[in-house]
Amino acid sequence: MSRPQANGPAVVVTGCSVLTPLGDQLDSLAQALREGRDAIEPASDPAGTGEARLRDFDSGRYATVRGMRVYHRTTQLGICAAKLALDDAGLKLDQLEPERFGLVSASTFAHLDTLLTYDEGLVTVGLQRTNPTLMALGLQSAPGAAVALAFNAKAFSITLSDGGASSLAALALGAR
Asked: pTM for the full model?
């Protein structure tokens, strides 16, 4: 990783957010982790595995964005997490310069079922009766692109997909 030049632009992380089954505030999440709590429940498929889900997630509680209801849950979570981070930083959208505001996100195909629904529609009911927006919403970069659009980030929108390391890779690229 290259080091920033002394006269180069500075990168500053000013806000942070979490949306987890253990809480949506850093303090409550930290307390749950200190207490040794976890949110992993047995999963039905495949047997013997576990999952942690936000069972009562309501995107309207966190962000009001046009078209939110058609977005996949992954995209809704991304939009809400970005809104919480902006709020934590004390940033207002009307104060940001869109041409200097960008987004680096990570994706590991959590929204792949949208693309599968689109493909299934093509096979079962044909092109004329399949919702065309599903194809675009099923792309790997769709969640990050939707978050960038929701917050008018025009400088850049980059989505990384690197398996379990995606989030760390996105943080590293954002810092660079």
From this structure: 0.79
